[in-house]
Amino acid sequence: MATQEHDGVPLTIHHEQQSFRLLELPPDLLGLITSENPPSTYQIRQVHSSNSVFVLQPSEVITNVTDGDGISVAGVSAIARCATTLELTTPTISARALLKNELRVFDGPQVGLQSNYLAEVDAADGRSKSMIYKDTPVSLQEFEDAWIELCAFELDSISWVPSSACLSEIWRSIISAVVLKGLNLQESVYIDDLAGLVEEDGFPAALLQAVIDRLHIEKAIPMEGWTTISVDKCVPWVGVTLLASESPPQGIAASVFLQRWQSRLPEAWRQHASLDRLNVSSAFGWI
């Protein structure tokens, strides 16, 4: 063990150095990632430095050795030297993209709900929501947000993501149920009033609930079995769904698309349909 003597604290350097990886975090970020449900996920990147960082620990150092005797004083020992540090960076791929790659595509009642089709789905070929979460490198909050955004749902322990065409069709079914039942989407709606007719069209209750979770007003205090649809969420969502599912390859005139979009909305909401409310990147990456 080498010793450097000076007027300050004695320093020794261990011959056998330990291996350390240093991660420097500001207090606010440390509190965030150590919370019970951290809302974000970060990637770790190794950064090389021209300056070495020594890891020290308290130790007893013998100084002023004379005739075999010496004085024990408090000092520090360098037990590791780190030439690199670790830093956190924002991931380049979203939780939504990671999750969607793990889900089976549900194309609607024409395919997705045929009993024979479901019977042919091998359990090993599809995974439950909890299994997918364990293998997805994102926080629980990011996973749940992406699950809701995609209108993902679980059926017979298999996780599905509806295609844009399927979402467009189930929205048609919801609007039909609203009209037949004389419901007002600007008010709270009893979900069972929608479920019976929507399920008659071949859509599972789990998918209906996924769409409701995607569109409901978050700050509203729901009564059991009731929901309140957010016009600010619903109007652009219907437009993006329509654009992704029904636009021809050669494109569509803005005026024609706007008319179709408005026709899919409750009459009181049609005034809110405008092209500047669309997130076009979502339309071509699915909803």
Write a concise keyword list for the protein shown above.
287 residues, alpha/beta, five-stranded mixed beta sheet, three-stranded mixed beta sheet
SSE topology sketch:
Elements: E1 2-4, E2 11-13, E3 22-23, H1 27-33, E4 43-66, E5 69-89, H2 95-100, E6 104-106, H3 115-120, H4 129-134, H5 140-149, E7 153-155, E8 158-162, H6 164-181, E9 189-190, H7 191-200, H8 205-215, E10 226-227, H9 231-246, H10 254-263, H11 280-283
Parallel strand pairs: 2-5, 3-5, 6-8
Antiparallel strand pairs: 1-2, 4-5, 7-8, 9-10
Report on the architecture of this protein.
The structure is a single chain. Helix content is 36%, strand content 24%. It has 11 helices and 10 strands. The strands form 3 sheets. Strands 1, 2, 3, 4 and 5 form a 5-stranded mixed β-sheet that branches. The protein has a 3-stranded mixed β-sheet with strand order 6-8-7. Strand 1 and strand 2 form a beta hairpin. The longest helix is centred in the middle third of the chain and has 18 residues, at 164-181. It is elongated, with a radius of gyration of 30 Å. Residues 112-117 have low confidence and may be disordered.
**What's the helix count?**
11
Which band does the percent of strand residues land in?
15-25%
Order of helices and strands: EEEHEEHEHHHEEHEHHEHHH
Radius of gyration: 30 Å
Secondary-structure-derived class = alpha/beta
Helix content: 25-40%
Largest sheet: 5 strands, mixed
Summarize it:
The protein has helices spanning 27-33, 95-100, 115-120, 129-134, 140-149, 164-181, 191-200, 205-215, 231-246, 254-263, 280-283, and strands at residues 2-4, 11-13, 22-23, 43-66, 69-89, 104-106, 153-155, 158-162, 189-190, 226-227. By secondary structure, the protein is α/β, with parallel strands linked by helices. The radius of gyration is 30 Å and the shape is elongated.
